[in-house]
Amino acid sequence: MVRQLAASIALAVLFAPAAVHAAAAPVTERDLRSLVTLLDPQISPDGKRVAVVVRRADFEKNVYKNELVLVDVKSGATRVLVKQRDDVASPRWSPGGDRLAYVATPEKDAAAKDEPQAQIAVLSMNGGEPVVITSAKQGVDAFAWRPDGRAFAYLTHDPSRDEKRMKAKDDWFEITDQAWTARSAPAPAHLWTVGADGKGTHRVTSGAWSLNGAPAFSRDGGTVFAVRTPASTNAYRSRSLVAVALPSGRVRALTSGRSSADAPAVSPDGTRLIAGGEHPAAFSQTELYQSDLAGRHVRDLSERLDRSIQFQTFVPGGIVVGANDATRDRLFELAADGTPRALPLGDVNASGGASAAHDGTLAFVGVTPARPAELYVLAPGAARPRRLTALNAAIAAHPAARSRTIVWRSADGFDVDGVLTGPLGMTAGTRYPLVVLIHGGPTATSTDAYSALVQLMAARGWLVFQPNYRGSDNLGHRFAQATVPYITSSPARDVLDGVDAVEKLGIVDKTRIGVSGWSEGGLLTSWLIGHDHRWRAAMSGAAVNDWTGYADMTDAKDFTPSFIGASPWSTPKMRALYDAESPLTYAAAVTTPTLIMTDAGDFRVPTPLSYEFYHAIRATGTPVELVVFPVNGHNPSDPLHREDRTHRWVDWFATHF
Question: 161: helix, coil or strand?
């Protein structure tokens, strides 16, 4: 009865007329060229200003350019601090709020032999030009202010141990656990310190192991907390928390084993250390742990919340965390005893991290169902967040198709959810084509926030269904862990059950249903077209079509042992399980016209897996196309290839519907 009522409410909302906009036309690909991305908002300690990175696409040069922008919290007035360039990132206020540090690549010196690398620069809020503080040969990966504002700790990679030999063109290297795209042996990253005036650069740590992520100072500045990983592997779960004494560099382990530590931070009073870590019964969910500075008296602060923690920041009397929850991306405040309280965001989804001023005012990037990203602040005790910017006002002026949550019951008894978006101008009694759009991960979630791809599809007159299958990080640790060891077949059943639930609403043209996704979404797409034949068309992007090939060639070496089990080469039973969960095994059964897309140098989901699946389908005579973008990475990272991917994705269904 509850599910029937939820479905009825969803239909009522989808059929409701959209709000009137000045621009009557739906959004187009050309309109989306003006889409602005906001990154890493940092509110000043006094809560009066927010520094944020604003990214825009330059289609003529095919690059993204960043600006460092200062936004006044009271008025919303903006001022550009650093003009457009490729790599401005990581703004961080000094403890006193009088200076702003960030990472950027200096202009190339005409006399320099090597290309410049990203360095720490400091800008005084009293005026003047930014001052470059570091000269790290390999560039700065991450940094933190010392609490007195007089120095920095930062991480930088070592030069290759084989640098001299490589310069002599004797550039072979031995493979251990590197991805198939590796072009050199891995080099570790280590901790350095430097004065805020750029003087006194000091190397702190050395070794074959590596430090990752942003370091965190103790209140007295005598210790830096960081995450240690093995430098020679891509085992992303082998992360532990360490304390590094300054200036000696003595390293003391605070956690041991496969703890998967992440993002350490010290409480304002200097007595507590918090960091992310694996749930004790579900490695795929991140918990927030608290201890003293020696790593003792450990408590799971987010146990009552039971959601995967994305980030955390201290506020007076507690800690604010971000987490997916059903089909929302929320902010929660955790009290000292771990009691969670959802903060009042209204229809705003928190996108990315948040930062807090001394009084607890939060700054974050928010996305609503009808509006792309903007900068928001939430004051202590406020009933709702306040939007500070209108950078995406031109896109928000176009009418947006409505989205609502639907819920269905899985075979294992979970109440699974998803987001259903109706095309603009839906009318009762009409049946519409349906595109199933499956998120990646699996530890991710589709929310009711504005999605450019969804809106482009809805503008074509299609329903779009985004299922949150088992393995998604929005319903607690049991749900997140429920794909082990059936990493493909188990979530695929949830997707099919979700499609059945949408069909029962009576609004779907069952002769025109498509399925698509990228990464894990591509994996499930490839699987579904080999096991179900209702699909009119499919788009499988960067898909794990063969788990054995993935295990041997990916950069994420912990993934398959964690989700499926020991190496497929360990026993015939394990090889059989890997094959059973691989879409390639069932390629002969595919009858759906399929578009396959991938990058030429995908380190996460190896590109050859797409080639294998393409040739397997092609051999059956089923219509299939393989499009390869000549770039590296798991997704196209430049504006033109991203736009082309989106165009081909939508156009494939337009052609076959």
Answer: coil
| Neighbouring residues of 5: CB distance < 8 A, sequence distance ≥ 6 | none
Q: Which of 280, 300, 320 is the last residue of a domain?
A: 300
Q: Looking at residue 86, what is its pLDDT?
A: 64
Strands 251-253 and 262-266: unpaired
Q: How confident is residue 127, by pLDDT bands cut at 50, 70 and 90? A: confident
**131-132 and 140-145 strand pairing:** unpaired
Mean pLDDT of all residues in the chain?
Answer: 92
The pLDDT assigned to 16 comes to 58
Burial class (CB within 10 angstroms; exposed 0-12, middle 13-18, buried 19+) of 132: middle
pTM, two decimal places:
0.93
- Residue 344 vs residues 14, 95, 123, 385, 402: alpha-carbon distances, Å: 24, 28, 34, 7, 22
How many Cα atoms are found within 13 Å in the side-chain-facing hemisphere of 110? 0
Q: How far is CA 616 from the centre of its chain?
A: 32
Q: What is the DSSP string of 75-120?
A: T--EEEEEEEES--EEEEE-TTSSEEEEEEPPPPPTT-SSPP--EE
DSSP category for residue 644: H
Q: Which domain holds residue 646?
A: 2-24+395-656
If asked whether residues 493 and 625 sit together in one domain, one would say yes
List the structure tokens of 237: 């779960």
For residue 442, whether the previous peptide bond is cis, meaning omega lies within 30 degrees of 0, is: yes
Say yes or no: 406 and 550 in one domain.
Answer: yes
d(CA 205, CA 405): 50
Cα dist. 335→147, 271, 278, 293, 310 in Å?
25, 16, 21, 20, 17
Residues in the chain: 657
Among the candidates 244, 276, 300, a domain finishes at 300
Q: Give CA–CA dist 606/551, Å, rounded.
A: 10
